[in-house]
Design brief:
Layout lengths: L2 H31 L4 H22 L4 H22 L8 H12 L4
Helix pairs in contact: 1-2, 1-3, 1-4, 2-3
Length: 109
Amino acid sequence: MSQSTKKKNHNEEIVKSIHAFSNEAFAVAKSFVAGDDVEPLKKKASDLKIDLPKFAARMQEADQAYRADLNRVLSEARLDLEYVLAGGGRPSSIRLSYVIREQSAGTIP
């Protein structure tokens, strides 16, 4: 396997892991907005937030071309987790704001 292929695979693995982490944070926040049991969601958000620095460090291992996207994704995850931990008393991520707006409008269950 060439160095170029190894580097590409490494970048792809970092991108996938950070996006998966962010999607997990988003799922917790969506459950919170949907009115699911708050305490388990806060526990899960707290557990995920502990891992945030690890993913931020992994982002630094990726090529520069990927970092803007990864930074945005991690920022959204952080906002989603903090929103849950604050009981909804903090600004949400842009993606969660759409869910909140749809929930308020009654267009999603």
